[in-house]
Amino acid sequence: MRVRKYFGTDGIRGKVGESFITPDFVLKLGFAAGKVLSQHGSRKIIIGKDTRISGYMLESALEAGLSAAGLSAAFTGPMPTPAVAYLTRTFRAEAGIVISASHNPFYDNGIKFFSTEGSKLPDEVEKAIEDTMEKALICVASASLGRASRIVDAAGRYIEFCKGTFPSQLTLNTLKIVVDCAHGATYHIAPNVLEELGATVIPIGVQPNGMNINKNCGTTDLRLLQARVLEENADVGLAYDGDGDRIIMVDHLGHKVDGDQMSYLIAREQWRQESLRGGVVGTLMTNRGVELAFMGLGIPFVRSMVGDRYVLNTLIKKGWRIGAESSGHIILLDKTTTGDGIIAGLQVLTAMLFTRRSLHDLCKDITLFPQRLVNIRFSGVQNPLADPRVKRVIAEAEAELKSTGRVLLRQSGTEPLIRIMVEGEDEHQISILSYYITEVVKQCINDHL
Which residues participate directly in catalysis (predicted)? Predict the structure, then answer.
């Protein structure tokens, strides 16, 4: 695996005004991307964004860089990441670019790229862009400069695409659904999709002001959604992240249903209808209980590294169609090319309607193992996970768990965090073990400050 200079596991991301998320860097990035991606003759790049206030600044810088390279930018305005992937395909564009930091706070932002087929860029293309960044920005002649335009019907196009993935013989008119759009890119999309399919929709998180994206709402904070589902006596709740490629659901009792559980429900419905092809890809974070549920049905299951690009790569290698992360990235290659929260949610609702069972009842067939997840903020240069003390406490925890549990520590590919996961059969045991591991990691971080 190559060492990336700018690109992480999900594009380029950071705090606005620092590191790579500055106007001058993004202008140069637009120029480099334009030079590398202009392979198909359309000379057009689709640019979408979420609702962060910094999106205005960054899309202007991107457009200037692309124009200097001789490519035209077609803006969608605020639009979910998977919508940009879809529009890139339908417009036969050279590529799609999304300005978003997904589930991060508003003061972060990032740049994601899609190929002309609507999939994540291969490593070699990202490397070519990074290499071109090191060269001088030489503007094309005036007659060859790119232009800027706006796709005025982008939202309508994507709404119809999402609706087209829902079975035509079904309707949502028996369901009351609370939808939390996290004040993000789905705010004007998801409620319309569900309403047009017949649901009674209670929308929350649909008043973006540029600075409230993901704030106390969405996939990273379900409390508001859970309370509203109970208050409204709703059948189900749907939470999206800031750019709409993640979804977490809530049943009518307020219980969380994560991406791995949803992948099971979707795969089981396809298995029941004899339309499932192959198996399901999860990640190292996938709960052991979900894996055992797949085994119970005889559905093959494998784990990839954490990150939707790794899930997708594994799906492609195996020729399978369903992959997911616990965090809510769900990839359904029989429906679209990338993780899509709206489309994934529709497939779970489909399973509810076909089986005439509530989301709570559908999840009863999965017995989750107790799991403790801890995030520790980390911004140092030296990786604390390489410290002998951390390696020792991990080995001690694994010895105590024996074969009944798992320990996983990793650096986040999207945020400056160390993520700790301890899983086992005994909740009290994993709570103690995760506490000791966390304390050791914190001490190592402090020692290297």
Answer: 102 (phosphoserine intermediate)
